[in-house]
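One such shown below:

_____
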Amino acid sequence: MCGIIGLVGEACGIGAERLARARDLMLHRGPDQTGLRELEEACLGFRRLAILDLSAAGHQPMLSADGQVALVFNGEIYNFQELRRELELHFPFRSQSDSEVLLNGYLAWGWEELLRRADGMFAFAIWDARRRSFFAARDRVGKKPLFYAETPGGLAFASTLNALSALLPDRRAVDPAALDAYLTYQAVPAPLTIFQGMRQLPPAHQLSCDLGTGEVKVARYWDLPFTPKIRASEAEVLDELDALLRGAVRRRLMSDVPLGAFLSGGVDSSLVTAIMAQEGAGPVQAVVVGFDDPAFDERPHARKVAQRWGAELHEHLLQPDATRDLPEIVWHYGQPLADVSIVPTWYVAKAARQHVTVVLNGDGGDEVFGGYARPMVARAAQHYRRLLPRKLRQALARATHSLDRPGLPRKLRMLAEAGAVTAEQAFTYDRAFRPHRAEAYAPALRAALAGEHPDALYRAAWDRADGADDVDRALYGDFVTYLPDQLLAKMDVSTMAHSVEARSPLLDRQLVEYAARIPTSLRLKGYTTKYLLKRLAERYVPRKVLYRRKQGFVMPAGQWLRGELAPHAEAALLGRPFAERGWMDPDFTRRMLREHQSGVRDWGQPLWTLFVLEIWARQALDGTLSRSDGLEALR
Protein backbone atom coordinates (compact mmCIF):
# COMPACT_ATOMS: atom_id res chain seq x y z
CA MET A 1 0.00 0.00 0.00
CA CYS A 2 1.27 3.40 -0.89
CA GLY A 3 0.42 6.93 -1.86
CA ILE A 4 1.08 8.12 -5.40
CA ILE A 5 1.02 11.66 -6.76
CA GLY A 6 2.19 13.55 -9.80
CA LEU A 7 1.92 16.14 -12.52
CA VAL A 8 2.32 15.86 -16.28
CA GLY A 9 2.65 18.68 -18.75
CA GLU A 10 3.10 22.39 -18.10
CA ALA A 11 2.01 22.12 -14.44
CA CYS A 12 5.36 20.49 -13.62
CA GLY A 13 6.69 24.00 -13.33
CA ILE A 14 5.28 24.41 -9.81
CA GLY A 15 8.47 22.86 -8.46
CA ALA A 16 9.54 19.84 -6.47
CA GLU A 17 9.05 21.51 -3.09
CA ARG A 18 5.31 21.93 -3.55
CA LEU A 19 4.97 18.41 -4.89
CA ALA A 20 6.86 17.04 -1.88
CA ARG A 21 4.61 18.92 0.56
CA ALA A 22 1.48 17.54 -1.11
CA ARG A 23 2.99 14.05 -1.22
CA ASP A 24 3.77 14.11 2.48
CA LEU A 25 0.13 14.71 3.36
CA MET A 26 -0.02 10.98 2.57
CA LEU A 27 2.66 9.99 5.09
CA HIS A 28 0.22 7.56 6.70
CA ARG A 29 -0.19 5.68 3.41
CA GLY A 30 3.56 5.15 3.11
CA PRO A 31 5.75 5.70 6.16
CA ASP A 32 8.61 3.46 5.02
CA GLN A 33 10.11 5.32 2.07
CA THR A 34 9.67 8.51 0.09
CA GLY A 35 10.45 9.18 -3.54
CA LEU A 36 10.28 12.00 -6.09
CA ARG A 37 11.33 12.16 -9.73
CA GLU A 38 11.51 15.31 -11.86
CA LEU A 39 11.48 14.31 -15.50
CA GLU A 40 11.27 16.61 -18.50
CA GLU A 41 7.47 16.68 -18.72
CA ALA A 42 6.41 14.72 -15.66
CA CYS A 43 6.97 15.00 -11.94
CA LEU A 44 6.12 11.91 -9.87
CA GLY A 45 5.99 11.46 -6.11
CA PHE A 46 5.61 8.41 -3.90
CA ARG A 47 5.14 7.30 -0.28
CA ARG A 48 5.82 3.62 0.37
CA LEU A 49 4.38 1.12 2.81
CA ALA A 50 6.74 -1.77 2.13
CA ILE A 51 4.96 -5.13 1.82
CA LEU A 52 6.91 -7.09 -0.82
CA ASP A 53 10.69 -6.79 -1.28
CA LEU A 54 11.48 -4.48 1.61
CA SER A 55 14.84 -3.50 0.06
CA ALA A 56 15.65 -0.30 -1.78
CA ALA A 57 15.20 -2.19 -5.04
CA GLY A 58 11.43 -1.88 -4.58
CA HIS A 59 11.45 1.90 -4.17
CA GLN A 60 9.46 4.18 -6.45
CA PRO A 61 9.07 6.08 -8.70
CA MET A 62 10.50 3.22 -10.74
CA LEU A 63 12.21 3.86 -14.09
CA SER A 64 12.85 1.63 -17.08
CA ALA A 65 16.49 0.86 -17.92
CA ASP A 66 16.60 3.68 -20.47
CA GLY A 67 14.87 6.16 -18.14
CA GLN A 68 12.08 6.84 -20.66
CA VAL A 69 9.22 5.13 -18.81
CA ALA A 70 8.32 5.78 -15.17
CA LEU A 71 5.85 4.06 -12.84
CA VAL A 72 4.16 4.86 -9.54
CA PHE A 73 1.94 2.12 -8.13
CA ASN A 74 -0.37 1.69 -5.13
CA GLY A 75 -1.69 -1.80 -4.40
CA GLU A 76 -0.90 -5.45 -4.98
CA ILE A 77 -0.81 -7.54 -8.17
CA TYR A 78 -1.82 -11.03 -7.08
CA ASN A 79 -0.69 -12.80 -10.25
CA PHE A 80 2.64 -10.97 -10.48
CA GLN A 81 4.74 -14.13 -10.06
CA GLU A 82 3.02 -15.75 -13.03
CA LEU A 83 3.53 -12.61 -15.13
CA ARG A 84 7.14 -12.31 -13.99
CA ARG A 85 8.01 -15.83 -15.15
CA GLU A 86 6.90 -14.87 -18.66
CA LEU A 87 8.64 -11.49 -18.61
CA GLU A 88 11.96 -12.85 -17.29
CA LEU A 89 12.54 -14.44 -20.67
CA HIS A 90 13.01 -10.94 -22.14
CA PHE A 91 13.68 -8.48 -19.29
CA PRO A 92 16.22 -8.45 -16.45
CA PHE A 93 14.65 -7.81 -13.02
CA ARG A 94 16.34 -5.79 -10.30
CA SER A 95 13.79 -6.45 -7.53
CA GLN A 96 11.30 -9.02 -6.24
CA SER A 97 8.43 -6.51 -6.31
CA ASP A 98 5.18 -6.57 -8.26
CA SER A 99 5.85 -2.93 -9.20
CA GLU A 100 8.62 -3.95 -11.57
CA VAL A 101 6.31 -6.53 -13.15
CA LEU A 102 3.90 -3.72 -14.08
CA LEU A 103 6.72 -1.61 -15.52
CA ASN A 104 8.18 -4.42 -17.63
CA GLY A 105 4.70 -5.64 -18.53
CA TYR A 106 3.96 -2.26 -20.05
CA LEU A 107 7.22 -2.34 -22.02
CA ALA A 108 6.51 -5.87 -23.27
CA TRP A 109 2.77 -5.80 -23.97
CA GLY A 110 1.63 -2.20 -24.09
CA TRP A 111 -1.00 -0.50 -21.96
CA GLU A 112 -4.21 -2.28 -22.98
CA GLU A 113 -2.73 -5.77 -22.73
CA LEU A 114 -1.15 -4.97 -19.35
CA LEU A 115 -4.55 -3.98 -17.98
CA ARG A 116 -6.12 -7.16 -19.32
CA ARG A 117 -3.48 -9.33 -17.65
CA ALA A 118 -2.99 -7.56 -14.31
CA ASP A 119 -5.11 -9.03 -11.51
CA GLY A 120 -5.18 -7.32 -8.15
CA MET A 121 -6.11 -4.18 -6.28
CA PHE A 122 -4.39 -1.15 -7.67
CA ALA A 123 -4.18 2.43 -8.74
CA PHE A 124 -1.09 3.02 -10.84
CA ALA A 125 0.25 5.54 -13.32
CA ILE A 126 2.81 5.31 -16.11
CA TRP A 127 4.58 8.17 -17.87
CA ASP A 128 5.99 7.29 -21.30
CA ALA A 129 8.35 10.04 -22.47
CA ARG A 130 8.81 8.36 -25.85
CA ARG A 131 5.15 8.92 -26.67
CA ARG A 132 4.64 11.99 -24.46
CA SER A 133 1.75 10.04 -22.99
CA PHE A 134 0.43 9.40 -19.48
CA PHE A 135 -1.66 6.38 -18.47
CA ALA A 136 -3.42 5.53 -15.22
CA ALA A 137 -5.88 2.88 -14.09
CA ARG A 138 -7.91 1.80 -11.09
CA ASP A 139 -8.65 -1.82 -10.18
CA ARG A 140 -11.81 -3.61 -11.25
CA VAL A 141 -13.79 -3.36 -8.01
CA GLY A 142 -12.44 -0.06 -6.65
CA LYS A 143 -10.24 -1.11 -3.73
CA LYS A 144 -7.66 1.61 -4.39
CA PRO A 145 -8.53 5.28 -5.02
CA LEU A 146 -7.24 7.69 -7.64
CA PHE A 147 -8.18 11.37 -7.94
CA TYR A 148 -7.21 13.68 -10.78
CA ALA A 149 -7.73 17.13 -12.27
CA GLU A 150 -7.04 18.51 -15.70
CA THR A 151 -4.66 21.48 -15.68
CA PRO A 152 -3.65 23.91 -18.44
CA GLY A 153 -1.52 21.79 -20.71
CA GLY A 154 -1.59 18.66 -18.59
CA LEU A 155 -2.96 16.79 -15.62
CA ALA A 156 -2.50 16.30 -11.85
CA PHE A 157 -3.29 13.13 -9.86
CA ALA A 158 -3.01 11.72 -6.34
CA SER A 159 -4.17 8.85 -4.13
CA THR A 160 -6.03 11.24 -1.82
CA LEU A 161 -8.14 14.31 -2.36
CA ASN A 162 -6.22 16.17 0.34
CA ALA A 163 -2.95 15.69 -1.53
CA LEU A 164 -4.49 16.64 -4.88
CA SER A 165 -6.00 19.80 -3.38
CA ALA A 166 -2.60 20.81 -2.00
CA LEU A 167 -0.97 20.17 -5.37
CA LEU A 168 -3.27 22.43 -7.37
CA PRO A 169 -2.53 26.16 -7.38
CA ASP A 170 -6.10 27.38 -6.86
CA ARG A 171 -8.87 26.51 -4.43
CA ARG A 172 -11.87 24.79 -5.96
CA ALA A 173 -15.51 25.50 -5.20
CA VAL A 174 -17.92 22.85 -3.94
CA ASP A 175 -19.70 21.00 -6.74
CA PRO A 176 -23.47 21.29 -6.13
CA ALA A 177 -24.14 17.96 -7.89
CA ALA A 178 -21.62 16.18 -5.68
CA LEU A 179 -23.04 17.83 -2.57
CA ASP A 180 -26.53 16.70 -3.57
CA ALA A 181 -25.30 13.15 -4.16
CA TYR A 182 -23.64 13.12 -0.74
CA LEU A 183 -26.74 14.43 1.03
CA THR A 184 -28.83 11.84 -0.79
CA TYR A 185 -26.62 8.75 -0.47
CA GLN A 186 -24.13 9.72 2.29
CA ALA A 187 -21.13 9.38 -0.05
CA VAL A 188 -19.81 11.21 -3.10
CA PRO A 189 -19.97 8.72 -6.00
CA ALA A 190 -17.26 8.47 -8.63
CA PRO A 191 -16.56 10.11 -11.00
CA LEU A 192 -17.61 13.09 -8.89
CA THR A 193 -15.67 14.59 -6.03
CA ILE A 194 -16.92 17.26 -3.67
CA PHE A 195 -14.86 19.85 -5.58
CA GLN A 196 -15.56 21.24 -9.01
CA GLY A 197 -12.86 20.35 -11.51
CA MET A 198 -11.57 17.38 -9.50
CA ARG A 199 -12.60 13.89 -10.44
CA GLN A 200 -12.29 10.38 -9.08
CA LEU A 201 -11.41 7.70 -11.58
CA PRO A 202 -14.19 5.09 -11.30
CA PRO A 203 -13.36 1.43 -10.68
CA ALA A 204 -12.43 -0.59 -13.78
CA HIS A 205 -11.57 2.60 -15.69
CA GLN A 206 -8.42 3.82 -17.36
CA LEU A 207 -7.21 7.36 -18.00
CA SER A 208 -4.89 8.58 -20.73
CA CYS A 209 -3.42 11.99 -21.45
CA ASP A 210 -1.62 12.72 -24.72
CA LEU A 211 0.53 15.83 -24.33
CA GLY A 212 0.93 16.06 -28.09
CA THR A 213 -2.78 16.58 -28.72
CA GLY A 214 -3.82 17.67 -25.22
CA GLU A 215 -6.53 15.01 -25.25
CA VAL A 216 -7.60 13.38 -21.97
CA LYS A 217 -9.65 10.18 -22.23
CA VAL A 218 -11.42 8.09 -19.60
CA ALA A 219 -12.79 4.68 -20.55
CA ARG A 220 -14.03 1.48 -18.90
CA TYR A 221 -11.71 -1.50 -19.48
CA TRP A 222 -13.72 -4.23 -17.65
CA ASP A 223 -17.25 -4.93 -16.52
CA LEU A 224 -18.87 -7.67 -14.44
CA PRO A 225 -20.82 -10.10 -16.67
CA PHE A 226 -23.92 -11.79 -15.21
CA THR A 227 -24.61 -13.89 -18.31
CA PRO A 228 -24.50 -16.56 -19.62
CA LYS A 229 -25.71 -18.39 -16.54
CA ILE A 230 -23.91 -21.42 -15.13
CA ARG A 231 -25.62 -24.79 -15.54
CA ALA A 232 -24.64 -26.81 -12.49
CA SER A 233 -26.09 -28.38 -9.37
CA GLU A 234 -25.87 -26.72 -5.99
CA ALA A 235 -23.20 -29.21 -4.91
CA GLU A 236 -21.11 -28.47 -8.00
CA VAL A 237 -21.43 -24.72 -7.48
CA LEU A 238 -20.35 -25.05 -3.84
CA ASP A 239 -17.31 -27.09 -4.80
CA GLU A 240 -16.30 -24.51 -7.41
CA LEU A 241 -16.82 -21.63 -4.96
CA ASP A 242 -14.70 -23.50 -2.43
CA ALA A 243 -11.85 -23.87 -4.90
CA LEU A 244 -12.09 -20.26 -6.10
CA LEU A 245 -12.16 -18.80 -2.60
CA ARG A 246 -9.28 -21.02 -1.52
CA GLY A 247 -7.24 -19.76 -4.46
CA ALA A 248 -8.21 -16.15 -3.70
CA VAL A 249 -7.07 -16.47 -0.08
CA ARG A 250 -3.84 -18.22 -1.08
CA ARG A 251 -2.92 -15.42 -3.50
CA ARG A 252 -3.45 -12.87 -0.75
CA LEU A 253 -1.11 -14.53 1.74
CA MET A 254 2.05 -13.25 0.02
CA SER A 255 3.77 -10.78 2.32
CA ASP A 256 7.19 -9.93 3.68
CA VAL A 257 5.62 -8.30 6.77
CA PRO A 258 3.26 -9.64 9.49
CA LEU A 259 -0.13 -10.70 8.11
CA GLY A 260 -3.45 -11.47 9.80
CA ALA A 261 -7.22 -11.11 9.54
CA PHE A 262 -10.11 -8.98 10.70
CA LEU A 263 -12.37 -11.50 12.43
CA SER A 264 -15.73 -10.00 13.32
CA GLY A 265 -17.46 -13.30 13.96
CA GLY A 266 -19.70 -12.82 10.91
CA VAL A 267 -20.05 -15.25 8.01
CA ASP A 268 -17.61 -13.56 5.64
CA SER A 269 -14.64 -12.91 7.91
CA SER A 270 -15.09 -16.27 9.66
CA LEU A 271 -14.95 -18.14 6.35
CA VAL A 272 -11.87 -16.20 5.21
CA THR A 273 -10.11 -16.85 8.53
CA ALA A 274 -10.90 -20.58 8.37
CA ILE A 275 -9.39 -20.92 4.90
CA MET A 276 -6.38 -18.82 5.91
CA ALA A 277 -5.76 -21.30 8.74
CA GLN A 278 -5.68 -24.15 6.22
CA GLU A 279 -3.64 -22.42 3.53
CA GLY A 280 -1.14 -20.47 5.64
CA ALA A 281 1.84 -21.36 7.77
CA GLY A 282 1.32 -21.02 11.50
CA PRO A 283 -1.69 -19.74 13.45
CA VAL A 284 -3.71 -16.89 11.97
CA GLN A 285 -3.25 -13.59 13.78
CA ALA A 286 -6.87 -12.48 14.08
CA VAL A 287 -8.07 -9.12 15.37
CA VAL A 288 -11.54 -8.43 16.77
CA VAL A 289 -12.98 -5.39 18.53
CA GLY A 290 -15.83 -5.66 20.96
CA PHE A 291 -18.38 -3.42 22.63
CA ASP A 292 -19.67 -3.12 26.17
CA ASP A 293 -23.20 -3.48 24.79
CA PRO A 294 -23.90 -7.21 24.13
CA ALA A 295 -26.26 -6.24 21.29
CA PHE A 296 -23.23 -5.06 19.28
CA ASP A 297 -20.49 -7.30 20.71
CA GLU A 298 -19.41 -10.08 18.34
CA ARG A 299 -16.36 -11.24 20.30
CA PRO A 300 -18.05 -14.43 21.57
CA HIS A 301 -18.67 -15.53 17.97
CA ALA A 302 -15.11 -14.66 16.92
CA ARG A 303 -13.81 -16.79 19.83
CA LYS A 304 -15.69 -19.83 18.52
CA VAL A 305 -14.12 -19.47 15.08
CA ALA A 306 -10.64 -18.80 16.51
CA GLN A 307 -10.89 -21.86 18.74
CA ARG A 308 -12.08 -24.05 15.86
CA TRP A 309 -9.04 -23.15 13.73
CA GLY A 310 -6.37 -22.43 16.33
CA ALA A 311 -6.15 -18.75 15.47
CA GLU A 312 -4.42 -16.38 17.86
CA LEU A 313 -7.21 -13.94 18.67
CA HIS A 314 -6.30 -10.38 19.68
CA GLU A 315 -9.33 -8.85 21.39
CA HIS A 316 -9.78 -5.12 21.85
CA LEU A 317 -12.65 -3.45 23.68
CA LEU A 318 -13.89 -0.54 21.62
CA GLN A 319 -14.42 2.63 23.63
CA PRO A 320 -14.77 5.30 20.94
CA ASP A 321 -14.11 8.90 21.79
CA ALA A 322 -15.84 10.65 18.91
CA THR A 323 -15.52 14.03 20.63
CA ARG A 324 -11.75 13.69 20.40
CA ASP A 325 -11.24 11.66 17.21
CA LEU A 326 -14.03 12.53 14.75
CA PRO A 327 -12.23 15.54 13.18
CA GLU A 328 -9.17 13.36 12.52
CA ILE A 329 -11.33 10.59 11.04
CA VAL A 330 -13.22 12.99 8.75
CA TRP A 331 -10.00 14.69 7.59
CA HIS A 332 -8.56 11.49 6.15
CA TYR A 333 -11.40 11.12 3.64
CA GLY A 334 -10.75 14.50 2.00
CA GLN A 335 -14.47 14.79 1.33
CA PRO A 336 -17.53 13.96 3.44
CA LEU A 337 -18.54 10.31 3.90
CA ALA A 338 -21.33 9.67 6.40
CA ASP A 339 -21.34 5.90 6.82
CA VAL A 340 -21.58 5.76 10.61
CA SER A 341 -19.21 2.78 10.70
CA ILE A 342 -16.31 5.06 9.71
CA VAL A 343 -15.86 5.37 13.49
CA PRO A 344 -15.56 1.70 14.55
CA THR A 345 -13.63 0.80 11.37
CA TRP A 346 -11.10 3.47 12.27
CA TYR A 347 -10.58 1.90 15.69
CA VAL A 348 -10.35 -1.70 14.47
CA ALA A 349 -7.66 -0.64 11.97
CA LYS A 350 -5.81 1.11 14.77
CA ALA A 351 -6.01 -2.06 16.87
CA ALA A 352 -4.80 -4.23 13.97
CA ARG A 353 -1.64 -2.13 13.53
CA GLN A 354 -0.47 -3.29 16.95
CA HIS A 355 -0.21 -6.84 15.61
CA VAL A 356 0.05 -6.94 11.80
CA THR A 357 0.70 -4.80 8.72
CA VAL A 358 -1.52 -6.74 6.29
CA VAL A 359 -5.07 -7.95 7.07
CA LEU A 360 -7.52 -10.05 5.10
CA ASN A 361 -11.18 -9.16 5.53
CA GLY A 362 -14.65 -10.24 4.43
CA ASP A 363 -15.56 -7.20 2.33
CA GLY A 364 -17.76 -7.97 -0.67
CA GLY A 365 -19.64 -10.98 0.68
CA ASP A 366 -22.93 -9.08 0.91
CA GLU A 367 -22.70 -7.51 -2.54
CA VAL A 368 -21.48 -10.63 -4.38
CA PHE A 369 -23.67 -13.25 -2.66
CA GLY A 370 -26.84 -11.35 -1.71
CA GLY A 371 -26.37 -10.39 1.91
CA TYR A 372 -28.98 -7.65 1.92
CA ALA A 373 -32.76 -7.81 1.75
CA ARG A 374 -32.81 -5.85 -1.53
CA PRO A 375 -32.10 -8.78 -3.93
CA MET A 376 -34.77 -10.90 -2.23
CA VAL A 377 -37.27 -8.07 -2.38
CA ALA A 378 -36.38 -7.52 -6.05
CA ARG A 379 -37.12 -11.20 -6.74
CA ALA A 380 -40.45 -11.13 -4.89
CA ALA A 381 -41.45 -7.80 -6.46
CA GLN A 382 -41.10 -9.25 -9.99
CA HIS A 383 -43.94 -11.66 -9.23
CA TYR A 384 -45.90 -9.12 -7.19
CA ARG A 385 -45.98 -6.66 -10.12
CA ARG A 386 -47.32 -9.37 -12.43
CA LEU A 387 -50.04 -10.46 -10.00
CA LEU A 388 -51.54 -7.10 -8.99
CA PRO A 389 -52.46 -4.01 -11.04
CA ARG A 390 -50.37 -0.90 -10.50
CA LYS A 391 -53.08 1.18 -8.79
CA LEU A 392 -53.73 -1.55 -6.23
CA ARG A 393 -50.00 -1.91 -5.55
CA GLN A 394 -49.71 1.83 -5.02
CA ALA A 395 -52.66 1.79 -2.61
CA LEU A 396 -51.11 -1.04 -0.61
CA ALA A 397 -47.83 0.87 -0.44
CA ARG A 398 -49.62 3.92 0.99
CA ALA A 399 -51.41 1.72 3.51
CA THR A 400 -48.25 0.02 4.76
CA HIS A 401 -46.51 3.40 4.97
CA SER A 402 -49.29 4.80 7.14
CA LEU A 403 -49.08 1.68 9.32
CA ASP A 404 -45.31 1.97 9.72
CA ARG A 405 -44.88 0.52 13.19
CA PRO A 406 -42.72 -2.20 14.78
CA GLY A 407 -45.44 -4.86 14.47
CA LEU A 408 -45.46 -4.70 10.65
CA PRO A 409 -42.77 -6.97 9.15
CA ARG A 410 -39.96 -4.97 7.56
CA LYS A 411 -39.82 -7.18 4.46
CA LEU A 412 -43.56 -6.69 3.90
CA ARG A 413 -43.12 -2.91 3.94
CA MET A 414 -40.15 -3.20 1.58
CA LEU A 415 -42.11 -5.42 -0.82
CA ALA A 416 -45.09 -3.06 -0.85
CA GLU A 417 -42.88 -0.04 -1.51
CA ALA A 418 -40.79 -1.78 -4.19
CA GLY A 419 -43.85 -3.23 -5.91
CA ALA A 420 -45.53 0.16 -6.20
CA VAL A 421 -42.84 1.42 -8.60
CA THR A 422 -40.70 -0.03 -11.38
CA ALA A 423 -37.72 -2.24 -10.51
CA GLU A 424 -35.37 0.53 -11.62
CA GLN A 425 -37.07 3.08 -9.37
CA ALA A 426 -37.03 0.64 -6.44
CA PHE A 427 -33.26 0.27 -6.76
CA THR A 428 -32.71 3.96 -5.93
CA TYR A 429 -33.69 3.49 -2.32
CA ASP A 430 -34.12 6.20 0.29
CA ARG A 431 -31.17 7.28 2.42
CA ALA A 432 -30.37 10.45 4.36
CA PHE A 433 -32.08 13.38 2.60
CA ARG A 434 -33.42 11.63 -0.48
CA PRO A 435 -37.07 11.85 0.72
CA HIS A 436 -36.58 15.42 1.96
CA ARG A 437 -34.63 17.24 -0.76
CA ALA A 438 -37.48 19.58 -1.74
CA GLU A 439 -38.09 20.84 1.79
CA ALA A 440 -34.61 20.47 3.32
CA TYR A 441 -32.46 22.20 0.68
CA ALA A 442 -32.07 25.96 0.68
CA PRO A 443 -33.31 27.78 -2.45
CA ALA A 444 -29.74 28.52 -3.57
CA LEU A 445 -28.81 24.84 -3.65
CA ARG A 446 -32.02 23.86 -5.43
CA ALA A 447 -31.38 26.54 -8.05
CA ALA A 448 -27.78 25.39 -8.55
CA LEU A 449 -28.98 21.85 -9.20
CA ALA A 450 -31.36 23.00 -11.93
CA GLY A 451 -33.52 19.91 -11.65
CA GLU A 452 -30.67 17.38 -11.65
CA HIS A 453 -30.95 14.37 -9.34
CA PRO A 454 -28.22 11.94 -8.18
CA ASP A 455 -30.55 9.02 -8.90
CA ALA A 456 -29.33 9.36 -12.49
CA LEU A 457 -26.04 7.75 -11.48
CA TYR A 458 -27.85 4.76 -10.01
CA ARG A 459 -30.19 4.43 -12.97
CA ALA A 460 -27.21 4.45 -15.34
CA ALA A 461 -25.75 1.52 -13.39
CA TRP A 462 -29.09 -0.30 -13.56
CA ASP A 463 -29.33 0.21 -17.32
CA ARG A 464 -25.74 -0.98 -17.89
CA ALA A 465 -26.23 -4.31 -16.10
CA ASP A 466 -26.50 -7.35 -18.37
CA GLY A 467 -28.37 -9.36 -15.74
CA ALA A 468 -30.92 -12.04 -16.51
CA ASP A 469 -33.41 -10.60 -14.01
CA ASP A 470 -33.96 -7.82 -11.49
CA VAL A 471 -31.96 -9.68 -8.84
CA ASP A 472 -28.88 -9.60 -11.06
CA ARG A 473 -29.41 -5.92 -11.77
CA ALA A 474 -29.80 -5.09 -8.07
CA LEU A 475 -26.60 -6.97 -7.23
CA TYR A 476 -24.73 -5.28 -10.07
CA GLY A 477 -26.00 -1.88 -8.98
CA ASP A 478 -24.71 -2.31 -5.43
CA PHE A 479 -21.43 -3.74 -6.76
CA VAL A 480 -20.63 -0.64 -8.83
CA THR A 481 -22.11 2.06 -6.54
CA TYR A 482 -22.56 1.40 -2.82
CA LEU A 483 -19.62 -1.03 -2.56
CA PRO A 484 -16.83 1.17 -4.02
CA ASP A 485 -18.24 4.60 -3.19
CA GLN A 486 -18.91 3.88 0.46
CA LEU A 487 -17.76 0.52 1.82
CA LEU A 488 -14.41 0.14 0.06
CA ALA A 489 -13.59 3.83 0.51
CA LYS A 490 -14.23 3.43 4.24
CA MET A 491 -11.96 0.37 4.48
CA ASP A 492 -9.14 1.87 2.43
CA VAL A 493 -9.11 5.18 4.30
CA SER A 494 -9.43 3.60 7.75
CA THR A 495 -6.69 1.03 7.25
CA MET A 496 -4.28 3.31 5.40
CA ALA A 497 -4.71 5.98 8.08
CA HIS A 498 -2.89 3.49 10.34
CA SER A 499 -0.49 2.19 7.66
CA VAL A 500 -2.29 -1.15 7.33
CA GLU A 501 -2.97 -2.94 4.04
CA ALA A 502 -6.42 -4.56 3.69
CA ARG A 503 -7.04 -7.42 1.24
CA SER A 504 -10.46 -8.80 0.28
CA PRO A 505 -10.53 -12.41 -1.01
CA LEU A 506 -14.30 -12.31 -1.58
CA LEU A 507 -13.68 -9.60 -4.19
CA ASP A 508 -11.26 -11.74 -6.16
CA ARG A 509 -11.82 -11.28 -9.89
CA GLN A 510 -12.28 -14.97 -10.71
CA LEU A 511 -14.61 -15.45 -7.76
CA VAL A 512 -16.89 -12.49 -8.50
CA GLU A 513 -17.07 -13.35 -12.21
CA TYR A 514 -18.16 -16.88 -11.36
CA ALA A 515 -20.60 -15.80 -8.63
CA ALA A 516 -22.28 -13.27 -10.93
CA ARG A 517 -23.21 -16.06 -13.35
CA ILE A 518 -24.92 -18.22 -10.72
CA PRO A 519 -28.69 -18.38 -11.47
CA THR A 520 -31.02 -16.65 -9.05
CA SER A 521 -32.72 -19.99 -8.36
CA LEU A 522 -29.47 -21.23 -6.81
CA ARG A 523 -28.25 -17.96 -5.31
CA LEU A 524 -31.42 -17.19 -3.33
CA LYS A 525 -33.36 -19.71 -1.29
CA GLY A 526 -36.33 -18.37 0.64
CA TYR A 527 -35.31 -15.40 2.77
CA THR A 528 -31.88 -16.69 3.81
CA THR A 529 -29.34 -14.01 2.98
CA LYS A 530 -26.05 -15.18 1.45
CA TYR A 531 -27.49 -18.67 1.10
CA LEU A 532 -24.64 -20.18 -0.93
CA LEU A 533 -21.89 -18.53 1.10
CA LYS A 534 -23.43 -19.86 4.30
CA ARG A 535 -23.74 -23.33 2.80
CA LEU A 536 -20.06 -23.16 1.88
CA ALA A 537 -19.13 -21.86 5.33
CA GLU A 538 -20.93 -24.81 6.95
CA ARG A 539 -17.86 -26.84 5.96
CA TYR A 540 -15.62 -24.70 8.16
CA VAL A 541 -17.57 -22.49 10.58
CA PRO A 542 -19.77 -23.49 13.57
CA ARG A 543 -23.47 -23.32 12.62
CA LYS A 544 -24.24 -21.15 15.66
CA VAL A 545 -21.96 -18.50 14.20
CA LEU A 546 -23.52 -18.69 10.73
CA TYR A 547 -27.23 -18.80 11.41
CA ARG A 548 -27.86 -15.94 13.79
CA ARG A 549 -29.25 -12.46 13.52
CA LYS A 550 -26.84 -10.16 11.71
CA GLN A 551 -25.53 -7.48 14.06
CA GLY A 552 -23.64 -5.21 11.69
CA PHE A 553 -20.61 -3.07 12.40
CA VAL A 554 -22.32 0.22 13.22
CA MET A 555 -22.46 2.78 15.96
CA PRO A 556 -25.62 4.26 17.49
CA ALA A 557 -25.30 7.67 15.85
CA GLY A 558 -28.89 8.59 16.74
CA GLN A 559 -28.16 8.01 20.43
CA TRP A 560 -24.88 9.90 20.22
CA LEU A 561 -26.68 12.87 18.71
CA ARG A 562 -29.04 12.89 21.69
CA GLY A 563 -26.16 12.40 24.12
CA GLU A 564 -22.48 13.27 24.03
CA LEU A 565 -22.53 14.71 20.49
CA ALA A 566 -25.70 16.77 20.96
CA PRO A 567 -24.06 20.07 22.02
CA HIS A 568 -21.43 19.78 19.29
CA ALA A 569 -24.01 18.99 16.59
CA GLU A 570 -26.10 21.99 17.66
CA ALA A 571 -23.03 24.24 17.65
CA ALA A 572 -22.11 23.05 14.15
CA LEU A 573 -25.55 23.09 12.54
CA LEU A 574 -26.98 26.19 14.21
CA GLY A 575 -23.84 28.25 13.84
CA ARG A 576 -23.35 31.11 11.40
CA PRO A 577 -20.83 29.31 9.13
CA PHE A 578 -23.29 26.50 8.37
CA ALA A 579 -26.18 28.89 7.75
CA GLU A 580 -24.11 31.10 5.45
CA ARG A 581 -23.17 28.19 3.19
CA GLY A 582 -26.68 28.32 1.78
CA TRP A 583 -27.02 24.57 1.52
CA MET A 584 -29.85 23.74 3.90
CA ASP A 585 -33.08 25.43 4.92
CA PRO A 586 -32.40 26.76 8.48
CA ASP A 587 -35.94 26.09 9.69
CA PHE A 588 -35.79 22.48 8.52
CA THR A 589 -32.45 21.97 10.27
CA ARG A 590 -33.75 23.42 13.52
CA ARG A 591 -36.84 21.25 13.27
CA MET A 592 -34.76 18.10 12.85
CA LEU A 593 -32.63 18.93 15.88
CA ARG A 594 -35.67 19.76 18.00
CA GLU A 595 -37.64 16.64 17.05
CA HIS A 596 -34.64 14.38 17.44
CA GLN A 597 -33.77 15.69 20.89
CA SER A 598 -37.37 15.41 22.10
CA GLY A 599 -37.79 11.91 20.70
CA VAL A 600 -40.70 12.93 18.47
CA ARG A 601 -38.85 11.52 15.43
CA ASP A 602 -35.54 9.80 14.77
CA TRP A 603 -33.54 12.11 12.51
CA GLY A 604 -30.26 10.38 13.38
CA GLN A 605 -29.17 9.50 9.84
CA PRO A 606 -29.81 12.92 8.23
CA LEU A 607 -28.32 14.77 11.22
CA TRP A 608 -25.20 12.60 11.18
CA THR A 609 -24.90 13.30 7.44
CA LEU A 610 -25.01 17.06 8.07
CA PHE A 611 -22.71 16.86 11.08
CA VAL A 612 -19.96 15.08 9.12
CA LEU A 613 -20.44 17.57 6.27
CA GLU A 614 -19.96 20.57 8.52
CA ILE A 615 -16.89 19.09 10.23
CA TRP A 616 -15.39 18.60 6.77
CA ALA A 617 -16.38 22.13 5.67
CA ARG A 618 -14.76 23.74 8.72
CA GLN A 619 -11.55 21.89 7.84
CA ALA A 620 -11.44 22.06 4.03
CA LEU A 621 -13.33 25.29 3.26
CA ASP A 622 -12.90 27.53 6.30
CA GLY A 623 -9.64 26.30 7.80
CA THR A 624 -11.08 26.92 11.27
CA LEU A 625 -10.97 23.30 12.46
CA SER A 626 -7.77 21.30 12.57
CA ARG A 627 -7.64 17.53 12.19
CA SER A 628 -6.10 17.42 15.67
CA ASP A 629 -8.84 19.54 17.27
CA GLY A 630 -11.57 18.01 19.37
CA LEU A 631 -15.19 18.79 18.67
CA GLU A 632 -15.11 21.47 21.37
CA ALA A 633 -13.51 23.68 18.71
CA LEU A 634 -16.88 23.80 16.93
CA ARG A 635 -18.49 25.67 19.81
